[in-house]
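Postdoc handover notes: sequence design on the structure in folder B. Input tokens:
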């Protein structure tokens, strides 16, 4: 029985993170049989509620509350001395000592499934855990990642160089790695493209094929340019008004992340309250549903507009015409791989010129709706199968 471990997982309060765990687990079991899969979680309580059927064990990585019993007097002296030299080295030593009590014995392959973790600066916690794994002789894989220029800071690049293999999820990241001198990388679509949808009974007011799904994220508004400050939420308002005034469709608001510090429900509730009297707007109580179930609801929409990458992957992979309000390299590069262009598929938040930019793009999407759907129906089976083949490549690499 093969053994695998997932690490750098933020928790299933982000349904995109959940989708990666669920899809990758199923992929590994399909390829390797009844494998033992251990999940090192930064939000164990969330993940225990998610009921991952293919995960054998969930280990709590957030054990700072145990520091007093793990970090001894000699450690404290060393940390103090290191901090005078480098806060990075002091932090790394602290976390390496902390993580040393986790169950890391035995063989197996460790997959880092936080796909964009290196796009948000340097994280000494990550560095310490990965360094400890390499010290113990573990094989490590950066799984389904996206990287941009900011990902190659000094310490990030050192850590990236420690992986045995890097699996990029889009061509842009693959080519960037090549430019940076890496040679141990492979190109496969995001594992979440393989996530199975689960169809539940439709809520009252949901008419299949007559809903426009909308996802908004507080994160995307942080990427507004100085010229476009405040245009994000106004763009969503103009979009909903366009749908209500120019189509006979209703709106389904779809939250995909439920963390208090980064909660999709905040902007979506604002939109719901503004337009609820229309009688044509629903808000999915997303926290009640798994990533598979949310994908099931998205799959029964006529079209989808989303900010969260994995909400749009749920739409793409079920052949729902999709428009992305983009804020990162992920959305741009995935669209380029799928369609050869971002034109008509991605609206970058920082390039919004006025509050009508999103609704105009959506109008064009509807005008090209059938072509868009037919394109997805043509390319998606092969694209999903290519995503599955990442596990076959892993089998080849493990030997």
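Designed sequence:
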């Amino acid at each position: 029985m093969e053994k695998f471990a997932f690490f750098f997982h933020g928790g299933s309060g982000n349904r995109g993170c959940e989708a990666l765990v669920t899809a990758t687990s199923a992929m590994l079991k399909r390829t390797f049989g009844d494998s033992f899969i251990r999940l090192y979680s930064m939000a164990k309580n969330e993940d225990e509620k998610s009921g991952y059927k293919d995960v054998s064990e969930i280990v709590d990585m957030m054990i700072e509350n145990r520091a007093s019993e793990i970090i001894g007097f000699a450690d404290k002296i060393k940390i103090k001395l290191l901090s005078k030299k480098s806060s990075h080295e002091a932090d790394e030593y602290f976390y390496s000592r902390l993580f040393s009590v986790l169950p890391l014995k035995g063989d197996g392959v460790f997959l880092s499934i936080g796909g964009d973790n290196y796009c948000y600066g340097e994280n000494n916690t990550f560095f310490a855990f990965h360094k400890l794994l390499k010290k113990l002789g573990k094989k490590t894989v950066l799984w389904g990642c996206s990287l941009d220029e900011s990902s190659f800071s000094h310490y990030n690049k050192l850590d990236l160089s420690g992986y045995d293999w890097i699996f990029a999820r889009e061509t842009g990241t693959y080519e960037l790695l090549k430019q940076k001198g890496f040679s141990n990388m492979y190109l496969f679509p995001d594992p979440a493209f393989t996530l199975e949808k689960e169809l539940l009974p439709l809520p009252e007011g949901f008419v299949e094929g007559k809903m426009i799904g909308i996802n908004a994220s507080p994160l995307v508004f942080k990427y507004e340019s100085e010229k476009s400050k405040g245009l994000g939420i106004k763009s969503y308002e103009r979009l909903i008004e366009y749908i209500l005034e120019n189509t006979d469709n209703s709106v389904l608001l779809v939250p995909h992340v439920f963390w208090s510090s980064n909660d999709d429900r905040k902007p979506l509730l604002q939109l719901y309250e503004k337009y609820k009297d229309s009688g044509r707007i629903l808000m999915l109580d997303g926290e009640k549903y798994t990533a598979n179930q949310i994908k099931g609801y998205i799959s029964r929409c006529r079209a989808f507009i989303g900010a969260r990458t994995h909400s749009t992957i749920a739409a793409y992979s079920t052949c729902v015409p999709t428009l992305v309000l983009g804020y990162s390299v992920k959305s741009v590069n995935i669209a380029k791989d799928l369609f050869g262009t971002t034109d008509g598929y991605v609206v970058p938040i920082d390039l919004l010129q006025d509050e009508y930019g999103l609704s105009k793009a959506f109008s064009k999407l509807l005008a090209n709706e059938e072509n868009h759907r037919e394109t997805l129906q043509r390319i998606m089976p092969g694209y999903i199968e290519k995503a599955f083949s990442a596990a076959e490549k892993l089998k080849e690499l493990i030997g």
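Context for whoever picks this up: The radius of gyration is 22 Å. Don't rerun without checking with the PI first.
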